[in-house]
Amino acid sequence: MIQNRPMVNPFTSHGSLTFSHTTFKMATRSRKGKKCTVIGGCGFLGQYIVERLLEEGYKVNVFDMAQTFEDDRVKFFVGDLCQEKDLAPAISDVQTVFHCASPPPSSDDRDLFYRVNFIGTKDIINACKKAGVQKLVLTSSASVVYEGTDIKNGTEDLPYAKKPMDYYTETKVLQEKEVLAANSSEENFFTVAIRPHGIFGPRDRQLVPILVDTARAGKTKFMIGNGENLVDFTYVVNVAHGHLLAAEHLYKDSPVCGKAFHITNDEPIPFWTFMSRILEGLNYPSPKMGLPYLLIYYLAAFLQLLCLLLKPIKEFKPTFTPMRVALAGTYHYYSCQRAKQLMGYKPLVPVDEAIKLTVKGYAHLQNKN
Ligand SMILES: NC(=O)C1=CN([C@@H]2O[C@H](COP(=O)(O)OP(=O)(O)OC[C@H]3O[C@@H](n4cnc5c(N)ncnc54)[C@H](OP(=O)(O)O)[C@@H]3O)[C@@H](O)[C@H]2O)C=CC1
Ligand SMILES: CC(C)CCC[C@@H](C)[C@H]1CC[C@H]2C3=C(CC[C@]12C)[C@@]1(C)CCC(=O)C[C@@H]1CC3
């Protein structure tokens, strides 16, 4: 049954999303007739991975909580990844599993994150091994090393965050550790973790929708900090491309096995320049003046505490959480040198073009006033 999310067919909804404008051709290693499953394949990133896999001639199963698009070439399985009986049929007889399912960071539901991201991922690993799956590609996050302080050109060697800023990040760390530790030549089971950062593009359900809601509520008059902090925002097509490259490079004795890889646009941009370009593209005013970063950070921390105290009486969801304020006011950009070296990664779509495509994809959120 098709469920109630904006119904889009990723193959027809936005012509410019295809890869035809690039001359890139995936290496032909072992791709013909390969079967794979995308867990979370109805989500924002998942749909782009599916699209790319089909273009590359894979046979694709999608496993997700609900079916949100239709495609005759895809076999859909609906269920909860934490339920082995739901998952097993979706991954039987496939060589590769892409795991890009997660509850949204905004849910801030500790038990849910722990159950889906940590326990559920362990279940996926076990189910993959049982089913004879050879490759597992996890969508992790560059934020597994982020603790709210500046990261400039961070490499994959940075230690995991000792004090993750939210439950989402905490469980992304646990999840990544499990997946990388599961890599085993003896068991012919190869794993890799892709760490994207700030994924954006048409059909995203977080960045642009939250930004537009914030602008409509009149809360984007000021920027947080001085507006100079560089950040990675990564176009979803480039992220999908990184996932396919990782799968293609996962085989016995490959240096890719058991490692994490940053996948970025390799073009860090000041946080507020990026936000302003989206806001102005959609005809919303962009912030011109900055507020002191630390002042806003401590206000957000205080507000969070207050919300926690009031939770038994009434639930509030503040727009400016400490995590969001930190993301808006610090430097956080990452080196993707390892992905370039070991799997020949190069972003396919530059930031400037990606922003234009994104603004075009959100025409329905344009400010008409
Ligand atoms: N967006 C970003 O900026 C970044 C995202 N990531 C990671 O990328 C991945 C994809 O994110 P994104 O596409 O933005 O997220 P989406 O929410 O769009 O997609 C996630 C999909 O997973 C599904 N899902 C959630 N829980 C379960 C479950 N228990 N069983 C089966 N399916 C489930 C969701 O279904 P439903 O919607 O019904 O809940 C949804 O379709 C995630 O792992 C995220 O952590 C990493 C870095 C940055
Ligand atoms: C309210 C405004 C100041 C900011 C609006 C935009 C934000 C909603 C987004 C800016 C950076 C984004 C981001 C993520 C979610 C959306 C933003 C906070 C992630 C937390 C998504 C999951 C990850 O793994 C890391 C991302 C970092 C950047």
Write the layout of secondary structure elements.
Blueprint: E1 35-39, H1 44-55, E2 59-64, E3 74-78, H2 84-91, E4 96-99, H3 110-131, E5 135-139, E6 151-154, H4 167-181, E7 190-196, E8 199-200, H5 207-216, E9 222-224, E10 230-231, E11 234-235, H6 236-248, E12 259-263, E13 269-270, H7 271-281, E14 289-291, H8 293-310, H9 322-329, E15 332-334, H10 337-343, H11 351-361
Parallel strand pairs: 1-2, 1-4, 2-3, 4-5, 5-7, 6-15, 7-12, 8-11, 9-14
Antiparallel strand pairs: 10-13
Helix pairs in contact: 1-6, 2-3, 3-4, 7-11, 8-9
The chain binds NADPH dihydro-nicotinamide-adenine-dinucleotide phosphate and the ligand CC(C)CCC[C@@H](C)[C@H]1CC[C@H]2C3=C(CC[C@]12C)[C@@]1(C)CCC(=O)C[C@@H]1CC3.
The ligand CC(C)CCC[C@@H](C)[C@H]1CC[C@H]2C3=C(CC[C@]12C)[C@@]1(C)CCC(=O)C[C@@H]1CC3 binds at residues 105, 141, 143, 198, 206-207, 210-211, 214, 319, 324, 327-328.
